[in-house]
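URGENT: need a sanity check before tomorrow's submission.

F., can you look over the ABC3 transporter permease C-terminal domain-containing protein record below? I want to be sure the sequence and structure line up before it goes out.
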Amino acid sequence: MTTIRQSIVAAKYHKKLTVLYTLFFALLLFVFTLLSQLVLTQSIALRYILGKWDQIKNALPQVESTLNEQLVDSNDFVMTLYQKIFVLLIISSIFIFFLLSTYAAHVRREEINSLYYIGIKKGQILKHLLLELLIPIIVGFSSVLLLLVLFHSQFVSESITINRKFVDKYFDQPTLVFTQTEELSDLTSQKNGKPLTTSKPKNAILPYNRISLFDVNSAEAPFKQTFLDFLTNMLLLTLSAIIGSFIGFYSHITLLSYRRDLPA
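Structure tokens as predicted:
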């Protein structure tokens, strides 16, 4: 407890560095959470749109379309893109905290040298420096969580909008093109391959148009799942912060130790 208390006091003393760590941690945690929400939104959207398409097929069984294949392909495209961004984000987080810790060690080099002179070993110094991350992690975690609680519906709505833009990059146009089958040849004068817009079988009710089919209900994304993803991302980012900071502090402290041991 004494070590933790000393680290907290040191973090409070170096307020600028603590604020810098907190801002980056909170920002990265928000980006991680947004990316997880996009993945959740895409999975919900695929299930939701396929459900709508089943209703259309029941209303118009004579209509053929490659929508199922297009949706699956677009889902693979978007999910692969999100996975690449996720990996890049992890690597970037480690690198960012490496730079921050290197800068912090440089600013506090006299303090670190003083610890060396009074006989504190490298491992103990590293332990103190890493424990000082507790305040940025706790404050950043609490801040982002508070924002998610207060603005969850807006957060989900924006994630749906962003995800739709990524999906639209796969589709040339977010519209359906229905192809007539032989059973519909007597119901419409349109040629095969043209959009079916003028005639439908009797008693068939088309519940969605070409735009509303791709709309996703934001109520489908529960806060519970967002919160669980948020906790997972917090743990992952904390691990990335520890790894990056450890590398940065260790390399800088080792360099200071090497310079200190050089003969005058």
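My own read: Residues 2-261 form one domain. Confidence is low (pLDDT under 50) at residues 173-205. If you see anything odd, call me.
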